[in-house]
TrEMBL record:
GO terms for biological process: proteolysis. This is Peptidase C14 caspase domain-containing protein. One of its GO terms (cellular component) is cytoplasm. It comes from the Eukaryota.
Length: 178
């Protein structure tokens, strides 16, 4: 399927952009169902610090969406995540570097348009999720698909729960350029 959005043009007269979006959701409102996560905010702050201290990102270029009471953080609702992803890639060009970190629940749902080989879409759960209805997947973010997923080298940073079955799987502990 051809995207209606324009392809990126190479522009060499401006420096590369480095931006990051770190999203963390605790789901305190889902605690009666046993779905609350307690360390997601720490994950987002750790990734932010890593990007600043090790990879030269500027604090002003890192957006945090956290479900806390800090007025400097927007809540990680579906609408705010979508807007922040659009802001993340605004003006993107080859050579720019973007990081999207999500610490929260995710799952797979049935792919309805036949675009996935495995028949499933990968989804993340925003703060305002209604189980089995609200979800945020790659089809909700066409601008991100076009600019990041199709045209720009990407690296995923995942927070992985180390289940007993995964103890034999090595973790990647060092990254190239982020």
């Amino acid at each position: 399927m051809q995207s209606a959005l324009p392809k990126l043009q190479i522009c060499t007269d401006s420096p590369a952009i480095k931006r990051a979006l770190c999203v963390a959701v605790r789901y305190e409102h889902l605690n009666p169902d046993g779905l609350e996560l307690t360390s997601t905010h720490k994950d987002a702050h750790t990734v932010s610090k890593l990007l600043i201290d090790r990879y030269g990102y500027e604090e002003k270029d890192i957006t945090l969406l956290l479900d806390d009471d800090d007025p400097n953080h927007d809540q990680p609702t579906q609408r705010n995540i979508t807007r922040a992803m659009e802001d993340l890639v605004h003006g993107a060009k080859p050579g720019d570097r973007f990081v999207f970190h999500f610490s929260g629940h995710g799952s797979q749902v049935k792919n309805l348009d036949g675009s996935e080989e495995d028949g499933k879409d990968e989804v993340i759960w925003p703060l305002d999720i209604e189980i089995d209805s609200d979800r945020l997947d790659e089809d909700d973010l066409p601008m991100v698909n076009n600019y990041i997923l199709d045209d720009i080298y990407r690296i995923a940073i995942l927070t992985i729960g180390r289940l007993p079955a995964l103890r034999q799987v090595p973790l990647i502990t060092e990254f190239g350029v982020i």
